[in-house]
Amino acid sequence: MIIATISITHYARRWVTAWMLLCLVGCTVIGPDYVAPPSVALPQEWNAEQATAQASASTEWWQLFEDPTLNTLIELGASQNLSLEAAGLRIVQARAALGISDALLFPQQQQVRGNLTKAYQNEQSFNAAGVGLDVGWEMDIWGKYARGIELSEANLYASIASYREVLVTITAEIARNYINYRTAQERLSLGLQNIAIQERVVEMTQVQYDSGNVSELDVQQARTQLYATQAAQPSLEIARLQAGNALAVLLGTLPRQVEELLKAEEHPKPPDFDDRMAQASTKSAEDDTFINDYKLRSVIPAPPALEHAIDPNLVRRRPDLQVAELQAQAQSARIGLSQAELYPQFFLFGSIGLSDTVPSGDSFSVSNAVTANIGPGFSWNIFQYDRVKNQVRIEDARFQESLTNYNQKVLAAVREVSDALVAYEYSRQQAEFNFSAVQAAIRAFSISATQYDNGLVTYQRLLSTVEKMTLREDSYALTRGKIANNLVALYKALGGGWEAHSEHPLVRPEVIKQMKARTDWGDYLAPETLRGDDRGLQDAP
């Protein structure tokens, strides 16, 4: 064993100690400390007469539809969506980046080196060997590395807020596509029902034509109406299948598996021609029993009634606004990083090792091989002030831009909530009128069908009532889908929904297992560590 001892004079030890104390005492953090942007004025209260939402209900707003299938789809999306998984992995990356920033507070260079060479000169040869340890430490006099940690922390919390933003978007998209699927499904059912009625009308007209009571024109008009209704079915089927395919992507699965989940529950069958005729003679279309029966046949999720005013401050909890503010904080830290380049950088360096060169055949001499050096140093960009200052100016302008972008996002959020409220309220009013129109159209059809059968009205009158009934029922189904989608848009605009899944793992266990099999992750992938960062966002701006 070779033991090398290096003696540092009493004077040198005092000088180095004094230098380190002076540097450490003089440490400061340059650059502006982050200050939250001035708050954009929000509406004092959204008009409760427009339509409003309860804050307590917005965390699991999809439960208000009372649709078990929708609840299942959203739960699956929160655990299987691939975009969400990618967002969780970005959190892991941000945590590792923060670990790098933390490590820069310690000696940045810690390197063991060694070499063994053979050299030839004329007819002589020499052996050279060396081994040593080099250490270099740039002291954070101006807080450059402290600002780097601040930057990495802001990026970490921004990645967590971004994960929540993805979760809010996915939840809303699952609900929207599910509503679109059910709306197309119901419109298809109504189309088949009306096709059956129109086929009956064609039969009736053909009988009248064969009896010489009507012309061929009446028959062809009846067939035209039937074919037009049949022609609308493929586009509705396309809409249904496309909504199902979109759900499959959101759930991270295949369309055929989604179809199994989307099988409609048993609903009463829509009335056929004879049922409609019976309704006309036994009850009014305004009758409560008829209205309830009609609504029970619907597969479109029924949105709840909203009764309470919205607290405008709910908008500020939106994850995308948290992301925007954290990005501004990160940009603020970059100003300090750039400003540090204006000042001298102080560092300590040292090395210890063994290095010797001897003629070939001779033994290395340890006593002559010991090398060591230690001391302070500095560097200063004294002739690059314009370059450095302009870089600082760029970072400052970017910071101001990020504050402006944040305020712009707040205003956009206010607009989204207001738009959703207006659309929700007016689509509800539209649905009320549409349902009244449906009631009237069904009643008119029943009356005209009876009268036509008895020869009291012309075929054109009967055809007109069939056409209007078909259009009104389809329009009513479409409007009810819009109401539900407008409510989804409202809750998305309020940024709610991620809280219900706050205990879900940010990265699936099977993915963590794969990553650990490839790389030593330490405790970075521990569920409690990842979830700890998630909860820590409440302390972030």
Short description:
With 541 residues, the chain is α+β, with helices and mostly antiparallel strands.
Can you offer a commentary on this structure?
The protein is 60% helix and 10% strand. The chain has 541 residues and is of the alpha+beta class. It folds into 2 domains: 94 residues, Single Sheet (Outer membrane efflux proteins (OEP)); 412 residues, Outer membrane efflux proteins (OEP). A 4-stranded antiparallel β-sheet has the order 1-2-3-4, with helices on one face. Strand 1 and strand 2 form a beta hairpin.
Q: Globular, elongated, flat, extended or rod-shaped: what is the shape?
A: elongated
Give the domain tally: 2
Series of secondary-structure elements, N-terminal to C-terminal? HHHEEHHHHHHEEHHHH
Number of helices: 13
What are the segments in which pLDDT stays under 50 over at least 5 consecutive residues?
Answer: 1-26, 48-57
Strand order of the largest sheet: 1-2-3-4
What's the layout of helices and strands?
Elements: H1 10-25, H2 68-80, H3 82-103, E1 109-121, E2 124-138, H4 144-210, H5 216-250, H6 255-261, H7 273-282, H8 288-296, H9 319-339, E3 345-359, E4 370-379, H10 385-453, H11 459-493, H12 509-518, H13 527-536
Antiparallel strand pairs: 1-2, 2-3, 3-4
Helix pairs in contact: 2-4, 3-4, 4-5, 4-9, 4-11, 5-6, 5-11, 7-10, 9-10, 10-11
